[in-house]
From TrEMBL, chains A, B:
This is Transcriptional regulator, Crp/Fnr family protein. Residues 150-232 form the HTH crp-type domain. It comes from Polymorphum gilvum (strain LMG 25793 / CGMCC 1.9160 / SL003B-26A1). GO terms for cellular component: cytosol. It comes from the Bacteria. Residues 43-92 form the Cyclic nucleotide-binding domain. One of its GO terms (molecular function) is DNA binding. PANTHER family: CRP FAMILY TRANSCRIPTIONAL REGULATORY PROTEIN (PTHR24567), FUMARATE AND NITRATE REDUCTION REGULATORY PROTEIN (PTHR24567:SF75). The keyword Nucleus does not apply. Keywords: DNA-binding, Transcription, Transcription regulation. InterPro entries: cNMP-bd_dom (IPR000595), cNMP-bd_dom_sf (IPR018490), Env_Response_Regulators (IPR050397), HTH_CRP (IPR012318), RmlC-like_jellyroll (IPR014710), Tscrpt_reg_HTH_Crp-type_CS (IPR018335), WH-like_DNA-bd_sf (IPR036388), WH_DNA-bd_sf (IPR036390).
DNA sequence: CGATCGGTTGAGTTCCCTCAAGTTAGGTGG
DNA sequence: CCACCTAACTTGAGGGAACTCAACCGATCG
């Protein structure tokens, strides 16, 4: 009814599970750490499901390499991507007995998995989890502002700036840089996934990107590869300045 | 520009701080627990600020009694309430060195405060934090779906249903109840605060509430006191069924 | 070379926002 | 006790940003 074009319509025949999980924020490219706690490592191809919403939540996952998204579905098929994870992020920690999101890979991914009880006793690990959850929380706060208060243009600009390390943050490095105020980005997400992350439709995302092209802010090298021609100008569009 | 009517326009002369924190989910009415770790207890009146975005984040807060909201502001004054806390919730745990939200009371409130280092060593407490953060995370996921994918009517219905314990959840108690499918709710929030929580304008919230009145779903006893006449029907409007 | 998949573009509509003018409920003081 | 004031909320009219539906485009692949 009030819904945007539904995920379930696009993907007929999907059986939905239900309820309980988590997500993150991080930096590096390959990170070991749960390994120390006797984790098993699993490998995934792009667009494979790590777990479904409603699966029993008795293990802790750590993204070691690649990219994973967490999303929730409404019964009529509307989808919201609630977090996009990067290497180092911990996920799958439940509040109840079941996962509350579905976790699906965006790229090839390496995931460390440990049984919950296995590490419940380690203070070191508890501290690490706390740190990680707090960081993820902060990202979720930021995202709530985006979803609740930003225009389509601001959402897409914010999304792109999040992919630029060391820019747009508290102490932005500024456009210094040898070679001008420009950056090459790899998206790892389809327009549909971006739309479901930003609370928009695929058409709106496409239109905004076209508008940015028209203004000379970006060059679309490939569908999943964008060159920011004016990083600072893009940053101005995020609504944070 | 693309912004909704701005918080700063409504509250001229407010000086904004900036950056880093957290929030929650809970149950009881008065909860001690940090007390065991030598916490100091502070009392607050309604609409007092516990800390500002940008304040140094070196303490942990636990809401013992009352209600607190966390919000973020954009520079042009748009506000997003990112979490509404209940007794038992822990907040103020930073990802960086600064709070990333402003914390403001909604009601009279009692808050336990402990120095960060004071409890860093306790595994018991670490575990409790993890549990609490995971629960808050789940609420944030849910809220992202609301902000990204739900209509105004669905948002308000979801908001009201969140105030009804034991209903609308995974295993809803159903309309059994002695005395019919009805419930009295106290809001503790103004229309403006509700709007800023749900990513709407005050006018839209007001219109939706009026529409619910017209349909006989609710009776507005006072501005901050609403009677749900048909809890199940309200639940149907949340988009989760 | 047609088929398919992901993305773009256009036309029309709708939901919610903006602006502006009421209305109501409390509180205060004459 | 009533007139007045203010703050919070409601209601209306109009407009615009983003949605829906539908057609089209371009790249990749068997």
């Amino acid at each position: 009814m009030e819904g945007r074009m539904a995920y379930l319509d696009r993907n007929p025949g999907i059986d939905i599970a239900q309820r309980t999980a988590v997500f993150g924020t991080a930096v590096a490219d390959e990170v070991p750490s749960l390994a120390a706690f006797g984790a098993k490592t699993s490998h995934f191809k792009p667009h494979e499901v790590v777990y479904y919403e409603g699966d029993p939540a008795d293990r802790i996952f750590e993204l070691a390499k690649g990219s994973v998204m967490l999303f929730k579905l409404l019964p009529d098929g509307r989808r919201q991507v609630v977090e996009v994870l990067r290497p180092g992020d911990i996920f799958g920690i439940p509040a109840g007995k079941e996962q509350n999101c579905t976790a699906e890979t965006l790229t090839d991914a390496k995931v460390n998995v440990v049984d919950m009880n296995h590490i419940a006793g380690s203070p070191d690990f508890q501290r690490q989890i706390t740190r990680c959850l707090a960081a993820q929380m902060q990202v979720l706060h930021e995202h709530a502002v985006l979803l609740g208060r930003k225009s389509a243009m601001e959402r897409v600009a914010s999304f792109l700036m999040h992919l630029v390390p060391d820019r747009g943050g508290t102490e932005c490095a500024g456009p210094s840089e040898t070679g001008g105020d420009t950056r090459q980005l790899k998206l790892f997400m389809t327009r549909q996934e971006i739309a479901d992350y930003l609370g928009l439709t695929i058409e709106t995302v496409s239109r905004v990107i076209s508008e940015m092209k028209r203004r000379g802010l970006i060059t679309v090298e490939r569908n999943d590869e964008i060159r920011l021609n004016k990083v600072c100008a893009m940053c101005q569009l995020t609504g944070k300045h």
